[in-house]
Amino acid sequence: MRFSVGDAVVVLTIGRKRGEIIAVSRNGRYQLRVEAMTMWSREEDLAALHEPRKPKKTIRSRPQRHGDPGEDPERVAPPGRIDLHGLIVEEALARLVDEINRSLLRGADRVEVVHGKGSGRVKDAVHRHLASMPVVAAFRLDPRNAGVTWAHFR
Question: Which of 15, 77, 137, 154 has the highest Cβ tally under 10 A?
């Protein structure tokens, strides 16, 4: 089965997530957009999508009252969390990107980054990197703990 750009597919290797083909390489690999992430995959790791996409469900953070004007019908997964204590900057950034990708694939709307207070090198690098990521809408230090940054996704 050959896929072409624009086809909707199911990616079997990452928990049957739905994606869209955005490019096809000469060697038969496909570049996909899965939620806010892009990735390359082989044809045997993909299946054609036969049903329409269903909306995400959200988990309520507070009890729902009938008729609440602020109610949101979508559900969001719990936030991601990564602890970067004891890592050098390069390793910390690599693990941060991995956790952001995992959190996005789960449907989370934010991630908690525990970088510690220390010298501030890891925190500064994390903040520079978060600022450069299009998927990150905003980030801020936790007001109760200066060793933690919260990154919110678009």
Answer: 77
- Tokens 């959190």 correspond to 103
Is residue 49's pLDDT more than 80? no
Domains of the chain: 8-48 (2.30.30), 80-153 (3.30.1370.110)
CA distance 103 to 97: 10
- Per residue in 51-98, pLDDT tens? 555 555 555 555 544 544 444 545 678 888 999 998 999 999 999 999
d(CA 153, CA 135): 6
Tokens representing residue 112 in the block: 């908690």
Residue 6 to residue 25: CA distance in whole angstroms? 14
Query: Taking phi first (over 0 means left), then psi (-120 to 50 degrees means alpha), and beta for anything else, what does residue 109 get?
Result: alpha
**Strand 80-83, strand 110-114: pairing:** parallel
Whole-prediction pTM: 0.53
- Report the distance separating Cα 58 and Cα 60, nearest Å: 6
Report how far residue 148's alpha carbon sits from residue 102's, in angstroms, rounded to the nearest whole number.
Answer: 19
Check residue 71 and give its pLDDT: 43
